[in-house]
């Protein structure tokens, strides 16, 4: 640990600071071009003018791979013309070869050949060559290429259809940019027709490309803006554009319309591009205009209302004399066409008429269809597509259910079928009372509702009874269950025949995301049939979808077979399989054996296995292929910091060797994952024309927040320098937009300089920052920024838009301010509570009691606003909440007081048990209160059924050892549902494991039960660990290696078990080291010292953090610590770091910060802020894996 005393000595020059030791390794030789047949070489000179193309290793390798009589070789020799090469052959030619053609030869290339080349996926990683090629393609041929791709992409006669393009988003953006640049001098009147040429590439309409149009004084006009809207086609093409591009398109149209932007005619041109509209825009519209828009289907054609927009629409409609009142309003909305016209705003109907039950059922169903139908985009394409049903929609579902189901026991299958889409709102007691016949008849509809947990299990039981399933389910019966199969009990899976499991693998695979790890383990075991490698080659996909659950040892045992499979360069058997990091390391190692060079096509053919590539792999990539190869690598897998840092270093070396400045093409071809690790000094010295582009590309990288905070700060400083505002100057909207997520790393003083025009964008960007503890100064700055945005308005004047703008940072506002915000505003903020990463924040609080993320006031206000309960302290009687009201609170339900939890009726508490048990963030008092209610309202611990135990979740952590010792733990799924939660003491874990074990021998515990026991394995003695069956252990060690609950002695015992099952640690492959996870924390000093250069980087960060400090210090040498990745180095804890020598600390610092930033690294006074944040993320990930 660097102490204050050490810094005084350093400053006085009395002690020399230890310099980080950089590993001294000889730079490996890069692959060079192989020799070419002289006959081909002589022919090439005529077509290329010289033989410089052959200096590229990928070109020479490609030529040598061609048959002597191939059309490509014939063309290169001059025996046939280039245009005689078939499109299928032409598309395989490397771009490096095509760019070297003489002009006369290049002109012979046909538009069909270019189309085939561009559409080949592998070539789309080669933007550098694509850029060079595009410059040489004459305009007329470029038009031919675009026209042919457009004709092939667009279904005839369906302007709303999604075009089938076959081009990556990057290539679409590149082609549209090239077209816009080529048409820079085209007039306003002619540009719309020019844009039609690229209308089939919606992902190419990026913010940057749209800004080029807006910044062109001739083209920043209504016809061009309207063409951009038209190019979005219907909502399906709109969905394909990025969120930022949709906002830009909307803003373009609004700007181009000038003073007329708020007229009815211009507003009606926008849908679905209403993304830039705000609640203030709606507030400024007259009631007559709102009704005119409603009459003309404006709302029907949009994807989502702006925050706070729905209450404004309701107020405008209610205040207009053009709208009926009272009973006439109910009649008005019983017309389904009028309901449909409201689109996503249909949620306001309930508030307008007072009670949804006054509507006819058909009107309610149309309202449901209208609200749900507004989410037309695919999952993840728009924010609306990622949201579940709103509070209003759930209320509508419940009204529909109440109207159609008076008695669950007598409801028919036909009625259930007619309520598809609303059935997920059935309460547990209603599901329990459904007839078996109705469930069987409506199983298809029920299966599509997304039931999870205990509700899904209850439906499965009813289906089995109704279908007279006395034993195992057949494949046909399982297929009928659909997504419900994700909650099929492990015991039921075990009962199925292996053949039926294999026949049902597609059904299981579709529900895999809902399964617990023990279910997945059981399915994988039963799906195995004979030789694993033969199964992978099977067309029936019997095991492929569950390959990531195949034990690593099974792959190791088949190592020779895998090597034989991939020896000829055919990796297709393995490339698309889902796989763990350990599996990828093993498979990639087999694929890489014997390869002297790694090129783009090889990387792409390896598929998911490239996740196993290491920094040493990059030495097999030649400089001339490097960019396209790392683009392919980063597109197919995520890597650790060492990999990205080496990619960045190589890019710098390549650029330095040519003495070339960073160009637009360079920027386009640098992978987004790599750019945050590039030298901030180099990126800060780019040409002025590029600096904003650099800042925006860094800011948009998903890996930005995985770099150290000092690096994020340097990137932010670069962006400010680019804007000419490094140390002073107000930051307006365009400045803050350029900075994007870089504002997260900016110093506090930067927030002071954000002016009123930029405040909203700054607050929205801050919401993208990772969850971490904030200093009081930072919280104050955010609060002041909010005050700037709202012009210091008081709480009573806040609207939903303002609240959504500060979002998750609402907790920085004072309690009094939050309390003063109107309830109808906060009632729309339930989604804020559901957006909170409760697990991450809980871990932060554990690591730092002074963290300062206190959402009590925010959650209390949501509770008050959502349920109508008073937050007054003078309220003497606790509000009695229904389960529905509690569920509507989402994560904010943890704000329920013990009095409020106690006041719930027995029936409502029982209905809500699984929901309450599924939340985290409860206090000990709340958990104990709910535990006691379980015993008083449901059953004593010893009388709880396994289905009831399944629902307990987090509540079980409050059970005493006596309670745990009395539970029926015979159902491994119920065990897992309570064991996966953190918070058990060693004594509790021991009691639970002992109860589970009963009279069973430890050696009889199966692998799926070892997985399902999760944190309860922390209750095993070291002697019991030694008794675990070796096969069961190796089958489950990847899951056990995600646990952190063991003592030092237990980790030692687990490691010894791994040794007995897999051999001495000296024989472990890097894949094995990764596979055992935290079990590696049991390695002794001698075993750590003996680890090889390949094994050290394979230790997981989780294992690093759990090794005793003295063991780590005495076990790993400085040279070994130099091998750590950033993720490993920052996992080193305070105690571990303090036990290290000066040289060892310097090695850890160098690994954590890298050579560019280590000199600027903050001192480690305990755990640095970055370290705490990263460990929080690691802890949260582990919890989710358990």
From TrEMBL:
Range of residues in the leader sequence: 1-20
GO biological process annotation, one example: cell-matrix adhesion
Protein name stated in the entry: OTOA protein
Keywords: Glycoprotein, Signal
PANTHER family associated with the record: OTOANCORIN, STEREOCILIN RELATED
Annotated Polar residues bias: 372-389
A cellular component annotation (GO) from this entry: cell surface
Region named Disordered: 372-397
């Amino acid at each position: 640990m660097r102490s204050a005393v050490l810094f005084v000595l350093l400053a006085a020059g009395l002690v020399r600071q230890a310099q980080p030791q950089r590993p001294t390794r000889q730079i490996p030789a890069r692959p060079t071009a192989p020799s070419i047949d002289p006959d081909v070489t002589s022919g090439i000179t005529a077509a290329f003018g010289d033989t410089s193309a052959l200096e590229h290793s990928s070109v020479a390798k490609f030529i040598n791979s061609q048959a002597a009589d191939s059309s490509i070789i014939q063309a290169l020799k001059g025996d046939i013309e280039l245009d005689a090469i078939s499109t299928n052959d032409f598309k395989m030619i490397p771009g490096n070869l095509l760019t070297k053609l003489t002009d006369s030869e290049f002109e012979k290339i046909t538009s069909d050949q270019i189309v085939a080349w561009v559409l080949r996926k592998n070539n789309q990683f080669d933007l550098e060559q694509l850029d060079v090629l595009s410059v040489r393609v004459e305009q007329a041929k470029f038009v031919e290429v675009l026209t042919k791709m457009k004709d092939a992409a667009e279904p005839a006669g369906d302007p709303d259809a999604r075009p089938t393009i076959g081009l990556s988003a990057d290539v679409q953006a590149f082609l549209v940019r090239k077209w816009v640049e080529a048409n820079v001098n085209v007039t306003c009147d002619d540009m719309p027709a020019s844009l039609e040429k690229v209308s089939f590439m919606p992902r190419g309409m990026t913010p940057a490309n749209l800004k080029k149009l807006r910044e062109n004084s001739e083209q920043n006009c209504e016809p061009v803006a309207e063409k951009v809207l038209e190019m979005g086609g219907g909502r399906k093409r709109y969905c394909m554009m990025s969120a930022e591009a949709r906002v830009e398109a909307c803003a373009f149209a609004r700007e181009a319309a000038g003073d007329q932007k708020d007229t009815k005619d211009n507003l009606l041109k926008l849908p679905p591009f209403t993304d830039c509209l705000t609640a203030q825009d709606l507030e400024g519209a007259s009631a007559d205009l709102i009704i005119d828009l409603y009459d003309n289907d404006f709302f029907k054609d949009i994807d989502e209302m702006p925050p706070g927009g729905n209450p404004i629409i309701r107020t405008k409609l209610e205040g207009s004399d053009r709208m009926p009142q009272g009973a006439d309003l109910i009649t008005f909305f019983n017309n389904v066409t009028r309901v449909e016209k409201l689109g996503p705003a249909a949620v306001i109907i309930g508030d307008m008429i007072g009670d949804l039950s006054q509507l006819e059922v058909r009107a309610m169903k149309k309202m449901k269809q209208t609200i749900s139908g507004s989410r037309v985009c695919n999952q993840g394409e728009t924010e609306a597509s990622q949201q579940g049903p709103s509070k209003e929609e759930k209320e509508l579902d419940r009204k529909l259910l109440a109207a159609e189901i008076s008695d669950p026991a007598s409801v028919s299958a036909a009625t259930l079928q007619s309520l598809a889409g609303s059935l997920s709102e059935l309460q547990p007691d209603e599901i329990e009372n459904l007839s078996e016949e109705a469930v069987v008849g409506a199983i298809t509809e029920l299966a599509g509702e997304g039931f999870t947990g205990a509700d899904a299990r209850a439906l499965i039981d009813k289906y089995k009874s109704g279908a007279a399933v006395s034993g195992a389910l057949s494949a046909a019966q399982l297929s009928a269950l659909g997504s419900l199969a994700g909650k099929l009990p492990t015991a039921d899976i075990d009962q199925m025949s292996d053949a039926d499991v294999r026949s049902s693998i597609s059904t299981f695979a579709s529900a895999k995301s809902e399964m617990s790890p023990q279910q997945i383990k059981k399915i994988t075991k039963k799906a195995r049939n004979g030789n694993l490698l033969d199964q992978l080659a099977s067309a029936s996909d019997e095991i492929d979808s569950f390959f990531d659950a195949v034990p690593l040892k099974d792959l190791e045992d088949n190592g020779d077979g895998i090597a034989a499979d991939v020896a000829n360069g055919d990796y297709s058997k393995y490339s698309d399989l889902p796989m763990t990091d350990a599996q990828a390391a093993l498979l990639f190692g087999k694929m890489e054996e014997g390869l002297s060079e790694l090129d783009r096509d090889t990387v792409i053919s390896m598929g998911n296995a490239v996740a196993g590539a290491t920094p040493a792999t990059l030495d097999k990539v030649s400089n001339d292929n490097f960019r396209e190869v790392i683009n392919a690598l980063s597109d197919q897998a995520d890597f650790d910091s060492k990999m990205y840092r080496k990619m960045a270093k190589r890019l710098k070396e390549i650029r330095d060797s040519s003495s070339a400045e960073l160009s637009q093409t360079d920027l386009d071809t640098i992978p987004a994952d790599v750019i945050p690790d590039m030298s901030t000094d180099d990126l800060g010295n780019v040409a002025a024309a590029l600096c904003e582009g650099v800042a925006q590309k860094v800011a948009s990288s998903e890996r930005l927040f995985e770099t150290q905070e000092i690096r994020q700060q340097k990137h932010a400083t670069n962006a400010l320098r680019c804007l000419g505002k490094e140390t002073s100057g107000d930051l307006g909207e365009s400045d803050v937009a350029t900075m994007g997520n870089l504002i997260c790393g900016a110093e506090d003083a930067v927030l002071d300089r954000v002016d009123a025009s930029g405040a909203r964008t700054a607050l929205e960007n801050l919401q993208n920052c990772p969850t971490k503890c904030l200093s009081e100064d930072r919280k104050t700055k955010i609060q002041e920024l909010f005050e700037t945005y709202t012009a210091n308005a008081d709480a009573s004047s806040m609207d939903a838009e303002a609240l959504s703008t500060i979002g998750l940072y609402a907790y920085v506002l004072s309690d009094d301010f939050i309390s003063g915000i109107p309830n109808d505003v906060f009632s729309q903020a339930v989604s804020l509570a559901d957006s909170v990463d409760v697990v991450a924040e809980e871990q932060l609080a554990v690591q730092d009691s002074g963290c300062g993320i206190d959402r009590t006031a925010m959650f209390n206000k949501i509770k008050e606003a959502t349920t109508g309960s008073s937050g007054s302290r003078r309220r003497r009687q606790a509000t009695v909440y229904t389960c529905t009201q509690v569920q509507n609170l989402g994560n904010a339900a943890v704000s329920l007081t013990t009095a409020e939890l106690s006041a719930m009726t027995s029936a409502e508490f029982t209905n809500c048990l699984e929901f309450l048990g599924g939340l985290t963030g409860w206090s000990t008092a709340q958990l104990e209160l709910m535990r006691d209610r379980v015993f008083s309202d449901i059953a004593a611990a010893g009388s709880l059924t396994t289905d009831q135990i399944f629902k307990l979740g987090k509540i079980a952590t409050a059970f005493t050892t006596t309670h745990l010792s009395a539970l029926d733990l015979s159902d491994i799924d119920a065990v897992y549902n309570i064991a996966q939660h953190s918070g058990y003491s060693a004594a509790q874990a021991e009691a639970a494991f002992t109860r589970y074990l009963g009279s069973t021998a430890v050696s009889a515990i199966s692998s799926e039960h070892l997985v399902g026991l999760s944190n309860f394995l922390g209750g095993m003695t070291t002697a019991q660990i030694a008794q675990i069956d070796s096969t069961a252990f190796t089958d489950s060690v990847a899951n056990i290696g995600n646990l952190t609950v063991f003592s030092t002695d237990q980790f030692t015992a687990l490691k010894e078990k791994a040794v007995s099952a897999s051999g001495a640690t000296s024989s472990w492959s890097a894949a094995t080291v990764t596979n055992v996870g935290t079990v590696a924390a049991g390695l002794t000093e001698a075993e750590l010292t003996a680890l090889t250069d390949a094994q050290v980087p394979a230790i997981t960060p989780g294992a690093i953090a759990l090794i005793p400090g003295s063991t780590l210090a005495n076990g790993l040498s400085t040279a070994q610590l130099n091998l750590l990745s950033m993720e490993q180095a920052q996992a080193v804890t305070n105690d571990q770091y303090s036990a290290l020598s000066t040289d060892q600390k310097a090695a850890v610092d160098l690994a954590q910060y890298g050579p560019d930033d280590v000199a600027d690294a903050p001192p480690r006074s305990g755990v640095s802020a970055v370290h705490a944040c990263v460990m929080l993320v690691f802890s949260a990930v582990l919890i989710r894996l358990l």
